[in-house]
Amino acid sequence: MENIKAKIRGYYPVSDEAMVALTGSFTQCIFPSKEIIIRAGRLDRQVYFIEKGITRSYVLHNGREITTWFSQEGDAACGSWDLYRKKAGFEYVETLEETIAYSISVEQLDKLYRSYIDLANWMRVLQQENFLRLQDIHIRRLNWSAQERYEHLIKECPDLFQRVNLGYIASFLGITQQSLSRIRANGCFLT
């Protein structure tokens, strides 16, 4: 669980005692590639912490899959409505490689937050960072060209391009796969 612990402590200095309590509540899950672990329309009160592998979150719009997020080693994957509203969500989470994850129920996490202030603070900081990241993505989609969005993503997450289907990356960037191919053909590889 070293990737998970390192990512948690990268956000907030969680004590050893709290970390033991958190990781002691985990259940290991091993998912094959292309497994949907969270489904739209179904309540899923689990949070999945990824030790090894990658997932993508997506929504369906007019029959098309639109990628909204990628989660990699150390990240958490969950449905936002499931987590915050106790309602079945609108998003899917799918593994893109064999993925080793550790799950914990939202209810157990809530108990741990009440018992360990450092865990509550870690989650607060994590959610703040995720909110800011989503805000940045939204602003970039409104104000940046497709090439600028691509260049930013390749600088921010260069390994994503070796691990993820380019169609998913194009969808995440809000462009067609043909547009992404043109950008890449024009020598914008930046890696």
Write structural notes for this entry.
The chain is an alpha+beta fold and 191 residues long. It is 48% helix and 23% strand. Strand 4 (55-61) and strand 5 (64-71) form a beta hairpin. It starts with a helix and ends in a 6-residue tail after the last helix. The model has no long low-confidence stretch (mean pLDDT 92).
Which key terms come to mind for this protein?
single chain, 191 residues, alpha+beta, Jelly Rolls, 4-stranded antiparallel sheet, 8 strands
Summary, kept brief:
This protein has 191 residues and is of the alpha+beta class.
Q: What is the name of the CATH architecture of the domain at 2-114? A: Sandwich
Shape: globular
Could you give me the name of the CATH homologous superfamily of the domain at 2-114? Answer: Jelly Rolls
Encode the helix/strand succession as letters. Answer: HHEEEEEEHEEHHHHHH
Percent of residues in helices comes to 40-55%
Strand segment tally: 8
Oligomer: single chain
Strand content: 15-25%
In round numbers, the mean pLDDT is 92
CATH level-3 fold name of the domain at 2-114: Jelly Rolls
The biggest beta sheet, please? 4 strands, antiparallel
- The CATH class of the domain at 2-114 is identified as Mainly Beta
Give unreliable regions as ranges: none
Strand-pairing-aware structural class: alpha+beta
Radius of gyration (Å): 17 Å
Distance between the termini: 29 Å
Spatial order of the strands in the main sheet? 1-8-3-6
In DSSP terms (H or I, runs of 4 or more residues), the helix count works out at 9
